[in-house]
Amino acid sequence: MKAFVLGVFMVIGLAVNAQTSAKSYFNSGAKDYVHSNLDKAIATVDQGLKKFPQDENLNQLKEKLIEEKKKKDQENKDKDKDKDKDKDKDKDKDKDKDKDKDKDKDKDKDKDKDEKKEEDKEKEEEKKQQQQPQIGEMTPQQIKQLLETMSNEEAKTQKKVNAQKVKGKKVQQEKDW
User: Fold this and answer.
1) Cβ distance 72 to 82 under 8 Å?
2) 42, CA 20 to 30 Å: which among 16, 23, 36, 108?
3) What are the pLDDT digits (tens) for 49-107?
4) What is the DSSP string of 126-138?
5) How do the residues of the chain divide into helix, strand and coil, expressed in percent and rounded to 5?
6) 3-class DSSP assignment, residue 176
């Protein structure tokens, strides 16, 4: 009974003092960062800095987390700009296409034919590339040949093993007639 009560108090004490050291805040923040929870990592490090403002590791981690957040924000802005540019280009292309369609219908037909020819050529090239083995890849014929060779080698090995099993001392049996 005493051991049980003592165990309960120890568990409660550990829960209360779960993050009482700067090292534990540092570890929790780093773990959150590794699991891509950047905001949670920054919040954890901030809590640690409130209790331990002079801790060098926490201060360095916070600086790195802030730098990483700035990088991610910049990347998101760049992606948004690229999307906007693509939309503008698509609008310009649509306007140009409308003008071209009204002017030269015959030229479009020729372009379509040329594009189809180019697409056919590209498809043929892709088929050739697919048929040719890449570095580290094997053709179906090579795979089949390799499997046949392996099965032949296995058969030879099995024959040798079975021959050794059969070999033994001949026992002379007496005739009982």
Assistant:
1) no
2) 16
3) 898 888 888 888 888 889 888 888 888 888 777 777 666 666 666 666 666 666 666 66
4) HHHHHHSPPTT--
5) 80, 0, 20
6) coil
